[in-house]
Each structure stands twice: as C-alpha cells, then as structure tokens.
Amino acid sequence: DMTVATDDTVVKPAEFADSKYIEIGKKTLADMEKGDMDSWMEIYADSAVYVWNSGDSLVGKPAIASYWKQRRANVIETIKFSDAVFLPIMVNKPQSVEAKGVWLLAWHKTTAKYRNGKEMTQWIHTDYHFNSNDKVDRVIQYVDKAAINAALPK
Question: Considering all CA atoms of the chain, what is the largest pairwise distance in Å, rounded to the nearest integer?
Fold first, then answer.
C-alpha cells in the first residue's frame, strides 16, 4: 500500500477521480473530429499551457486557440480518434513534477489526413490537468513529431 501518514491521517499519493472527467475527454476528441474548435476550447482556462514532449509549448488560451483553429482549418483535413482509454486521477501528494489535483490521462489511436493528401497514424498520450474550476490549465501531449512532420507539406 503506497500511503503516507501525516499526523493521524493517511494520505494516498493518488486515487481515482470523478468519472465526469472521462466525459470531458471524450467531448474534446469528438469536437476535434468535427472541427468544432470553439467547443473544443471551452475546457481551457485563460492561463492554460499546452506542452509537447518535444519541448514546444503554447502559453495562454488565445495562443492555444489560434494554433489549433488554424491547424484544424488549414492543415488537417480529417482526424479520427479510436480505441481511447481515459484514466481520471486525483494527485494528492505529487511524487515528482506533476501538479497536485485532478489529471485526466488519455491514450488514443490518432489518424490524421492532411490537406496535402498524406496520412499519419500513431498512438498519442495526452495528460490534462484541471484547476479548481474544472478548466484545463496544463496539457502535456506525447507525440511522435517525426511521423507528423513526414506527412506535412514541405
């Protein structure tokens, strides 16, 4: 049992969070597939940060909206998510760099067809951190940029 005693209470470093976060995750994938980027952006806090494993990042809701609206309208013709798995967790005692609070861990197969006719399929893992108002304030997305870059126009 991975528990930490503090005074007379026992605190688990992490536990399952409310399943409502799974529904939020499913909605974001559906909105991206439809290209409804205004609805897709509703989950974000104004101060949100979107980070990729490559080190690139977008800071602030306007920057996230600008990038993804442009990308979905002008670069990605169609995008499909399948075999999605969602795990909502409450981090009570961070063990490393993760922030305390609710995280939704998501894995899904992503198939994107780009406007140049090329296609890319890969498994993507996305971690969403929610603030106290249930808005996403941090996204960490793990992608294979080489697969994406190979399908993009040169």
Answer: 62
